[in-house]
Design goal:
The complex is a heterodimer of chains A (193) and B (284).
Chain A lengths: L1 H20 L4 E5 L5 E8 L3 E7 L2 E7 L8 E7 L3 E2 L3 H6 L13 E11 L4 E10 L2 E16 L6 E12 L12 E15 L1
Antiparallel strand pairs in A: 1-4, 1-11, 2-3, 2-11, 3-6, 4-5, 5-7, 7-8, 8-9, 9-10, 10-11
Chain B lengths: L4 H25 L4 H20 L10 H22 L2 H19 L8 H19 L8 H23 L3 H19 L11 H22 L4 H8 L4 H6 L2 H4 L4 H27 L6
Helix pairs in contact in B: 1-2, 1-7, 2-3, 2-7, 2-8, 3-4, 3-8, 4-5, 4-8, 5-8, 6-7, 6-8, 6-9, 6-12, 9-12
The chains are: A mainly beta (193), B mainly alpha (284).
Chain lengths: 193, 284
Amino acid sequence: MMKTMHRILISTALGAALIGGGAQAATYDIDIVHSHLAFFIDHLGFSRVIGTANDFSGTFDFDVAQPEKSTLDVKVKVASISTNNQQRDSDIQGADWFNTPEFPDITFTGKEFKKTGDKTGTILGDLTIAGVTNPVVLNVTFNKEGQNPWDKSHVVGFSGETTVKRSDFGMKAALGMIGDEVKLYLEVEGRGK
Amino acid sequence: MAQSPQEALMIGVVLAALAGLAVGGGLRFFRLKPMFMGLAASAAFLLAYVVTYNKVPSFPPVGAVNKIFYIAAAGAVLGLIVDLTEKARLGQILIGLQPVLAAIYIGQSRLPDGYLSVAIAAAVGLAIVLSLQAMAAPSVGEASMRRAIVLVIACIGFAPIALLGASSSSFQLLLVFAFGIAGLLVCFVFDDGFALGSAFYLGAIGGILSVAYTVTLITAKFDPLALAVLCLTFAVPLIARRIPMVDAPASRLARLTIYTFLCLLPAAAAVIVAIVSYGTAFPI
């Protein structure tokens, strides 16, 4: 009897430790301080212009044991896109490109989450740019989940990438000079709510 | 075929001019009614749009750029109906309403905060259309030709202003359209019965105004001084009446040539103003 009680106590303690310090289903806010969104686009074949979106937000649900049950909603402020050239940054806000006055946000909503490896997966979602929505698959790497030692918050981190064609979103200006394919890279940290 | 964007544009405008010549020659040869001129001009605009944007936009249109196509298309259809039914009064009402409605439709995302911009754009658009209509009487032959010349020159003048205002697509569209129409017009220089038709106003001019609204209200990076100078192009018909030299030559071709050069003056001045005030390298 004592032996059985002892086993139950040990099992309970172990379980509690696992739940408290390891994987758990949670809702996260994107931590803008430690998250980055960059894109690369060809310029006449000579080089790739690098741009960043500096203001975006979003939330996601994630459980490392059940990643397919995740959710994801991201909103990017188009006005925050920078390519390190003031003139060009202003130009791309116009009707030929992102058309910011009419469509101030880029959004991505995750629809289907698949695990493809120990730490990798894909997210099929709807990407909306300039009022046009297309399905896009994000290739995602799960980096780490745990406690931030500074503020003890629960953090989860991912890296991701995908390629989209700007022409699919109606952006066909200067197609002969500026590439159609846009490579997107993201680094995201989520803070548990 | 083209080795550079400049070459591609050159090829585009030359092909547009040749197509305009071919269509204009056909219209002239078969002595078709003015409504076909209006339809041809509207078709030239829609074709220039499709060539520029590589698409017929989905319906209902999403965003100002896509709305341009349907404003021109709807205008062309309405213009054709007006011309077929010969309801001149209805035509006048539609021609007066379109610049205002198009400004509101294109600029709706600027409302209500930017209502003043939309109102100014609508007022300028209406003034341009009315000035083209009231330019001279009777509205056939040389008088109609002069109206069309003003429009072509205004398009050519506005194209670089749009380009410097970050609308390279508008630049291409305006030039292809202008040279296409120029090709059409050449065939009618000596035609006393030449008239534009309601479809010309509602389709072609409606489309051009919509491009201007998109550049000024949505992209909103235009040079206001350059645009103000360009608007003087529409005052040329009034000024030309007071310059005896314009109407002095006995030859119609000579009169139209002088008139065209007169129209080019404010357009060229507007482009110079835009280039000078841009003041930095074009970041392509």
